[in-house]
Amino acid sequence: MLKEIQIQEAIQNLQASQVPFRENLSLASLSSFKIGGTAPLVVEPGEDEQIYSCLAILQKLDLPFKILGGGSNLLISDHPDDFVVLRLAGSYKSYEMLEPGIFRIGAATNTTPTFRQISQKGYKGVEFLSTIPGWTGGAVMQNAGCYGGELLDFTSKIEFIRNGEIHSKKPSEIEYGYRFTEFLQKKDSIILRVEMKLDEGNLEEIEESLKDKRDKRNSSQPENKKSAGSMFKNPRLNDEQGKPIKAWELIDRVGLRGAIKGGAQISPEHCNFIVNLGSATALDVHYLASLVQEKVHKETGILLNREVEYFGSIP
Ligand SMILES: Cc1cc2nc3c(=O)[nH]c(=O)nc-3n(C[C@H](O)[C@H](O)[C@H](O)COP(=O)(O)OP(=O)(O)OC[C@H]3O[C@@H](n4cnc5c(N)ncnc54)[C@H](O)[C@@H]3O)c2cc1C
Questions:
Q1: Pocket test for ligand 1, best of 68, 132, 220 (most atoms within 8 A of CB)
Q2: Is residue 221 very low, low, confident or very high in pLDDT (cuts 50, 70, 90)?
Q3: Does 198 lie in the same domain as 130?
Q4: What is the model's pTM?
Q5: Is 307 a catalytic residue?
Q6: End position of a domain, from candidates 189, 219, 249
Q7: Which residues constitute the domain of residue 71?
């Protein structure tokens, strides 16, 4: 747990540097699971200079921090009180078209409306991103994707802070793959913005593609449920017929569809989702996730890796 004296010192420094922050904030409201305890300090830098100030303050006071985006791929601890939360705000919440087809998109932009709007301006290819919850920075971190598309395939430049300096790299200059980037592995960078170079398309076809992806999403996922999407990555293995094995099939096969612990349930509609029925704790979800891993491993020999990340200590 952070000491009160450290928090007060950080607050004085943040005020002096005019970096916005909030104290004692419930993180449940900032997560798609609607799970998470109260964070003692959430810092919300709105521009690059404020991030520099913030990092200098946290380093000087030896305060650990974690970055929270849209909170849609996280299981947040019931007691997130041993670190400071850094959450981008201000200028990172907007995007602009620099010239026709070239977009600069802030890391704190909400993915769904941003990519719907960009698509509806007549630029094609990124319609799939309009169905993924969360923020653009979080989507970069794990190369978010669906329906055959992945964010980094459409990205020409990523701007991030690493070792106190702003870097700008093309995707070809970083390591990335399926639901993976070096940023996620190393946890040593803050994504600030991306640039995308998109081709113009036929507006009617783009609208059709937006609708098609939205319909697919609505028909395959539990609607209006509190979750963090797929709990486990698909294992990247084929069955005897050469068909890719899906995580949900394994969970179904071992009989865990609909299993309940406390306020959490393995979704009866899509069993790779764990849903919060209303009063779930992080521990409830963790219990079910561990049960899935144990049973699937014992009965099929396959080890499922979590796609949802833990934010703070859970067990
Ligand atoms: C209903 C539902 C459906 C989903 N469907 C999909 C899908 O089809 N495809 C898919 O890929 N994902 C899917 N997801 C998961 C999630 O939406 C994506 O992974 C999303 O891109 C995460 O973004 P976020 O801003 O919410 O990140 P968060 O959950 O806030 O954070 C995820 C990770 O990124 C880090 N992070 C966030 N922002 C930054 C930053 N600016 N700089 C450095 N680190 C940062 C965090 O520290 C954390 O490690 C789904 C989730 C839900 C709830």
A1: 132
A2: confident
A3: yes
A4: 0.96
A5: yes
A6: 219
A7: 4-87
